[in-house]
Write a structure and sequence with these properties.
Helix content is 63%, strand content 10%. The chain is α+β, with helices and mostly antiparallel strands. Helix 9 runs parallel beside helix 22. The longest helix is centred in the N-terminal third of the chain and has 56 residues. It starts with a helix and ends with a helix.
Length: 565
């Protein structure tokens, strides 16, 4: 059973239970109908919205489904029927969602930023600039006032900071909020449908693309083993750990062949002519090491991984925060760390690698030596499944404070990153470095996925209910032109951004779709996209493009007002 369907059933059960409790506690409510009970109580309302929305999102029509974004449609209906949800619920959900997204994207964010950061920033510039151009052109042709145009622009790009900037620039003119309320649902729906429909229309299989990227992307050189025959006369008789090239190769020599069996090396193991060594590393680095030591060997061997290899979880202060050079495990225990798993990502360490809490160390050595290392390192496997709520709280507080800090450029009134940008940036840093000080960036995958989904649906429920309150009156009073304007601003920039990314920048499909979601500042769009593939590429691309778009929307909102007034 899928997670989304479980959430739907759980939410509906919570809504019915809360309604029953409310009826027991309130004699007046006891005489009300069940629909009225649900609408009049925030707890029952939010879980009913989530449950019905997730059920709606699970329905597929020609292979296309709304996913988590089905929640916002149900929320709009509830809002039109008089349901009101606390604003803080939406803020809580938004912060939780973007923070968990940042933790997921963090390990690959900076690598992606330096590799494709410029290209993804160009997508954001293209999308936001195109949206602003459409807004100004349509406003001129249809005679839409500047406050409404700025509001529609911010709503179509689902940008709360853009709305806040426009309101501050126009002294809280209510027309800005009206335009935002009209365009916001179109901004949400357009991106969700775009990432669902366009791949289908073009014959793109996003799940297969994710597997393809994993096989041919930057991490294609997965960690491998290689048996190497030593032939280099210049290193004969020298200890393995004393040869600088080996230490700098980012490969680990963990075993030496004795007869037909590979046994763990010790601190006294030296290079010998014709010796066979087992090295662990990435394919390209292993070949360099083999060329230096001698040549690759095809000799058969027996590898005892049952008793001579153990995955040790680092938790003790004696190892956490120290480099492998400082720990000197080969001399202390006769154990080699062949690889480390950190935040679900494996890598081959070198002497300067610093061990972090909850790192999984692949320790190679004699059984008794490994047991001694496990005791020394703490080795509590439960740590891998524990969520550090203190670090979670501290990270979110830091993100919220960062989001509230004003940032000003010359010639502008300044802006803030808001509740989305601040927590996202803090989580990216924590996810990349694994933590800052005592604040950890690790969260178990299951907990991270649940909190990401829960945060998203809480945010969508509150946002949809708020938009539904005034959606019909505003639509009747302002007419169809604003709807058309919002639809155009939501769709044309995405089409232009897609063509620019694919034809000009030559980006991959997952990077393109993730970058467009970031350029549109669309968290629901990202949610719909990640439901179609297990790859982290869209999330990383979104996180790379999003901050640029966040800043540009605030700048262009002011420019729209300046041009139209």
């Amino acid at each position: 059973m899928k997670l989304s369907f479980r959430i739907a059933l759980f939410s509906l059960a919570c809504a019915c239970s809360a309604a029953a409790l409310a009826a027991q506690a309130d004699p007046v409510a006891a005489n009300a109908s069940l629909p009225r009970l649900i609408l009049d109580h925030p707890i029952t309302s939010v879980f009913a919205i989530i449950g019905i929305g997730m059920l709606l999102g699970s329905i597929k029509i020609y292979g296309v489904s709304l996913g988590s974004s089905g929640v916002i449609f149900v929320a709009i209906v509830f809002g039109a029927l008089g349901c009101s949800l606390p604003k803080e619920l939406g803020n809580f959900g938004l912060v939780l969602f973007v923070y968990c997204v940042g933790l997921s994207a963090g390990p690959g964010f900076f690598r992606a930023f330096f590799r494709h950061g410029t290209e993804l920033a160009k997508i954001s510039v293209t999308v936001v600039a195109a949206g602003a151009t459409v807004a100004v052109a349509f406003a001129w042709m249809a005679g839409v006032p500047a406050p409404l145009a700025a509001g529609v622009f911010a709503g179509a790009l689902t940008s709360t900071p853009g709305l806040a900037t426009a309101l501050a620039d126009l002294q809280n003119d209510p027309m800005v909020s009206i335009g935002y309320g009209i365009a916001y649902p179109f901004g949400v729906v357009a991106v969700v449908l775009f990432v669902q429909l366009l791949p289908r229309l073009l014959g793109h299989d996003l799940e297969a693309e994710g597997h393809k990227h994993a096989a041919s992307g930057p991490d294609k050189n997965r960690i491998q083993r290689m048996l190497i025959e030593v032939c280099n006369p210049s290193i004969m008789g020298r200890k393995i750990q004393d040869v600088h090239f080996v230490a700098a190769s980012r490969c680990q020599i963990s075993r030496v062949l004795r007869g037909e069996r590979l046994v763990p090396i010790t601190s006294e193991t030296v290079f010998e002519d014709g010796q066979h060594l087992l090295a662990v590393g990435h394919d390209d680095r292993l070949q360099d090491l083999a060329d230096f030591l001698g040549r690759r060997s095809d000799r058969p061997y027996y590898l005892d991984t049952a008793s001579e290899l153990m995955q040790v979880v680092a938790t003790a202060p004696a190892v956490v925060g120290k480099s492998l050079r400082e720990l000197n495990l080969i001399n202390k225990f006769g154990v080699t760390i062949s690889r480390i798993i950190r935040h679900d990502v494996g890598f081959v360490p070198d002497a300067e690698t610093v061990v972090q809490r909850a790192d999984v160390l692949y320790a190679v050595g004699e059984p008794q030596a490994i047991k001694q290392l496990a005791t020394f390192a703490g080795h509590r496997t439960r740590v891998l499944d524990e969520t550090d709520l203190i670090s979670l709280s501290a990270g979110i507080i830091a993100g919220v404070l960062l989001g509230m800090t004003p940032i000003a450029f010359p010639g502008t009134q300044g802006f803030t990153l808001g509740l989305a940008g601040g927590p996202l940036l803090v989580a990216l840093v924590l996810g990349h470095f694994g933590g800052v000080g005592r604040i950890r960036g690790h969260m178990p995958r299951a907990a991270r996925l649940l909190m990401t989904e829960a945060g998203l649906v809480f945010f969508l429920a509150a946002a949809g209910a708020k938009a539904g309150e005034g959606f019909l009156p505003v639509l009747r009073s302002q007419g169809v032109p604003l709807v058309v304007m919002g639809a155009l601003i939501s769709t044309l920039p995405m089409l232009l951004g897609y063509g620019f990314a694919r034809r000009v920048l030559r980006l991959g499909l997952l990077e393109t779709y993730g970058g467009i979601c970031g350029g549109m500042t669309s968290t629901p769009g990202l949610g719909a996209l990640t439901s179609r593939t297990d790859s982290e590429v869209p999330t990383v691309s979104y996180a790379t493009a999003y901050p640029v778009a966040l800043i540009l929307v605030t700048v262009f909102a002011q420019m729209i007002i300046a041009v139209l007034t």
